[in-house]
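Title: Comparing notes on inverse folding

I've been comparing how different people in this forum approach sequence design from structure. To keep things fair, I'm posting one structure and asking everyone to reply with a full sequence. Here's the target:
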């Protein structure tokens, strides 16, 4: 029914290659990569060199989430580095239609991200250009935050909007999802579940991934 995408934001960066291999062996298909610039969000994480290194290290699809102030200037660098999915925030892009087309032209899957306060109605005109929409269920910037309780209602509104246009846009959710609420996420209409601290912060990341994937139901993109 849905795919679990482990987020390396919560992985051990001193052993990042090993952490990726653990997720590969557990059966992951997508690896979520959070890029933060310290401007759009109050945190600084990784950049182009790490995405490029991951692309050369793993065959997993790289789901790159740009939490940066200037995605229109930086998108090509991440696409050339190997991003398979590239998600940009609605709140930061001036010419969203053009940027989504550019991402698709470069061979990647374009996605739009909405912060918790941004309504799904803003996507009505742009949905046909999207491969996926990523809904933040925490305020972006840091892992390990508490899930915002109204997020599943927002998922259902987005699913209704997608269905009303007869589209096959995937819904992704990120923030505060773990074994206990992943099933509800899928039942609300989510296709891709991002999980960072729930997986890498557990005693047995592989076991937690498998538990979440089992609760979500298996699928392939």
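Reply #1:
Here's my take.
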């Amino acid at each position: 029914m849905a795919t679990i995408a482990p987020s390396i934001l919560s992985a051990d960066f001193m052993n990042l290659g090993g952490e990726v291999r653990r997720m590969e062996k557990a059966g992951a298909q997508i690896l979520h990569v959070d890029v933060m610039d310290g401007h759009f969000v109050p945190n600084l994480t990784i950049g182009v060199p790490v995405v490029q290194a991951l692309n050369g290290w793993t065959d997993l699809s790289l789901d790159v989430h740009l939490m940066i102030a200037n995605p229109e200037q930086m998108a090509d660098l991440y696409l050339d580095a190997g991003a398979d999915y590239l998600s940009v925030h609605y709140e930061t892009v001036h010419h969203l239609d053009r940027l989504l087309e550019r991402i698709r032209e470069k061979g990647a899957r374009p996605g739009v991200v909405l912060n918790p306060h941004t309504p799904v109605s803003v996507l009505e005109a742009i949905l046909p250009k999207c491969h996926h929409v990523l809904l933040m269920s925490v305020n972006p910037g840091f892992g390990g935050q508490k899930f915002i309780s109204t997020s599943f209602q927002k998922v259902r509104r987005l699913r209704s909007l997608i269905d009303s246009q007869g589209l096959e846009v995937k819904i992704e959710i990120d923030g505060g999802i773990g074994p206990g609420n992943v099933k509800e996420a899928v039942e609300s209409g989510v296709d891709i579940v991002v999980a960072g601290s729930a997986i890498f912060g557990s005693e047995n990341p592989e076991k937690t991934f498998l538990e979440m994937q089992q609760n979500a139901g298996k699928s392939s993109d």
